[in-house]
Write a structure and sequence with these properties.
Elements (H helix, E strand, L loop, with lengths): L1 H24 L1 H9 L14 H25 L2 H50 L4 H14 L14 H6 L16 H6 L6 H8 L4
């Protein structure tokens, strides 16, 4: 049973190694193939660089499978010990990576929350009072078809609302009347999710 298990690991490693070598050596053909895929994202071209990673992973799995198979056939304590040591190291690395990932995600989320608070506070302090700041946000909201960083509430305590008793027109696209708080609240309007998505993608 152990021989079969390690044989599968060995064959899988050899297959991954072969694909990695092909991708690394025949980059031109791969890139040419990707160019013929309609609406393919530009990031897909980065697959050409994955070959080196596949070579490393494939070689490692092949070595692990080889040690396991030889150890099972020859009943070599040395090889079996080497195999189990490698498996234990892989397990510990995976556990460590999981812990680091969880801790990092919390830290990143805290940073994103802090950024969100600062952006909202910046809108509150500068929108309507700083001409260049107001112009940049108007252009951003028009371009992304959104309302604020979070929603219309970002503008509630701004000088713009205090002075005009109205909200940016991008917050009330479904209303033909004045863009007051009632209209902004009733408007089914996307917040600037593109900006938030770009920020949140860092934590994934």
């Amino acid at each position: 049973m152990m021989f079969v298990f390690n044989g599968v690991i060995f064959l899988a490693g050899a297959a991954i190694l072969a694909v990695g070598i092909w991708v690394a050596v025949d980059r031109v053909s791969l890139l040419g193939f990707l160019e013929h895929i309609e609406d393919a994202p530009p990031e897909l071209a980065q697959l050409a660089n994955v070959g080196y990673l596949l070579i490393g992973v494939g070689a490692f799995l092949t070595l692990v499978g080889f040690l396991g198979c030889c150890g099972a056939v020859k009943e070599s304590k040395c090889m079996l010990l080497s195999f189990f040591t490698v498996v234990l190291i892989i397990f510990l690395v995976e556990v460590a990576a999981g812990v680091v990932s969880i801790l990092t995600s919390f830290q990143v989320q805290n940073v994103l929350d802090e950024i969100e608070q600062k952006v909202a506070r910046s809108i509150e302090d500068n929108y309507g009072s700083d001409e260049s700041f107001t112009s940049v946000w108007n252009s951003t909201m028009n371009e992304l078809k959104c309302c604020g960083y979070n929603n219309y509430t970002d503008f509630m305590n701004s000088q713009f609302v205090s002075t005009t008793s109205s909200y940016p027109v991008t917050c009330c696209t479904s209303s033909s009347g004045p863009c007051n708080e009632i209209a902004a609240k009733a408007d089914v309007r996307l917040v600037c999710t593109v900006i938030k998505a770009m920020s949140n993608s860092i934590s994934l």
